[in-house]
Design a protein that fits this description.
single chain; about 230 residues; alpha/beta; TIM Barrel; NanE; Aldolase_TIM; RibuloseP-bd_barrel; EC 5.1.3.9
């Protein structure tokens, strides 16, 4: 389950694909998500990101690239891998990297972000990706020991407005901060041009989810354009 430094370095400049389906959707099956993840690797993904313990397990068996795992519990506040218990479960399911809420908000179990990250490192050896919503989040997450910094929660934590595409300003701010850890651009990256812009703004790697792995959303985009 351990990810060596050369493997992490190999992600630089690459595309990470997030394969997730929402509860109640036709594709909400761990085996389906693992197949989607495997198909994205064929297309060039250097890593994949999946949600749920079974999804992590099936995906680990389906791909040979690093797996970023998370566990969503709820829909509001801190719900992306919100506690140390969730984080360790994700690591034990086989995730090389555990993605968790990296904001400065209070966590449900009362632990600090630093305590949570230390617990993951000590309890599993997995790396930690902190999903942040602002520059201050990123600075605090780096101080807390996060191995990777993501912009996943930009526009969703209440600190920054929700941009139509990726928050390029935030990506540039974090990149300029010199945190000496990979900066992963994520959130509303819907086109290849968005992905390139995020990379040019300073991202180490780029995560794309909905635009690649969510047929319902993609179909609705085309449908809406045809009906205008």
């Amino acid at each position: 389950m351990l990810l060596a430094q050369p493997q992490l370095a190999a992600l630089e400049g690459g595309l990470i694909v997030s394969a997730q389906a929402y509860p109640g959707e036709a594709m909400r099956d761990p085996r389906t998500m693992a197949q989607v993840a495997a198909a994205s690797v064929v297309g060039g993904a250097v890593a994949v990101r999946v949600q749920g313990l079974a999804d992590v397990q099936f995906t680990r068996s389906a791909v040979e690239v690093p797996v970023i795992g998370l566990f969503k519990d709820g829909h509001d506040g801190v719900f992306i891998t919100p506690t140390l218990h969730h984080a360790l479960a994700v690591a034990q399911a086989g995730a090389h990297i555990v993605a968790l809420d990296g904001t400065r908000r209070e966590r449900p179990d009362g632990r600090s972000l630093a305590e949570t990250i230390a617990g993951v490192h000590a309890g599993s050896g997995a790396l930690v990706m902190a999903d942040c919503g602002s520059l201050d989040d990123a600075l605090a997450a780096a101080e807390a020991g996060a191995d990777l910094i993501g912009t996943t929660l930009a526009g969703y934590s209440g600190e920054r407005p929700k941009t139509e595409g990726p928050d390029l300003e935030l990506i540039a701010q974090i990149a300029a901060a010199g945190l000496e850890r990979p900066l992963i651009a994520e959130g509303r990256i819907h086109t290849p041009a968005h992905a390139r812009a995020a990379r040019e703004a300073g991202a180490f790697a780029v995560v794309v989810g909905t635009a690649i792995t969510h047929p319902s959303s993609i179909t609705s985009w085309f449908d809406a354009e045809l009906r205008r």
